[in-house]
Amino acid sequence: MSADRRSLMSRLSRPERLLPFACIAGAAVLFASEFMTTFQLSEGPLGSGNPLCNLDAASRHHFALGILAIFAVLFVIVAVVWGSKPAAVAVGIAGVLALLLFLIIDLPKANNVGSISSACDLAGQGFDAKALPQAGFWLEMVGALALALSGVALATLSPEQLDTMRPRWFGGGRKPKPTVLDHRAELEETPAGQATTDASSREARRAARRARSGT
Fold this sequence. Notes:
Strand content: 5-15%
Distance between the termini: 52 Å
Mean pLDDT: 79
Low-confidence stretches: none
CATH architecture of the largest domain: Up-down Bundle
CATH topology of the largest domain: Butyryl-CoA Dehydrogenase, subunit A, domain 3
Strand order of the largest sheet: 2-1-4-3
């Protein structure tokens, strides 16, 4: 079996090793959503009229989601490389905060109908418009959910489990510290090993006696 295949089988047998990649992917999607349009304000209560203006994500959140995404990636690296449990918890906190911002700021405004905001430079002209979600809205939702779920799951891992995720070039691949059950199993196996050694020594003594009697 090739080394690549063994590595793939190892990852599949331990799905928690995929959590850092899921956290980074969610943070990347969340960061990208900050450079996209969240809502398009279209004329009319049904949003079927002419588009009036676009509302960008960065201007709505003051780039808060982008900052959370950057911090999440940094904390993932610290958690994996140094086996830091507090860093893993920080990833989960960043994901939960991003999800709360989405639920509080953007989700209630989706498909809302009201007068034009000053962002369109049309305030006071009596237009009614509908806030239609755009690609940035959906990317923000997916990224916030992915980062929150994978971050919270990463925060539940022990430092020993985080140590096993360390890259090989950074001294990774170390076995987790033995637990009480491992020591108990080792103690249970010891008598059997001693019995095998005793049987081998008896056979050796018999063979020596036969050799002396034969001479």
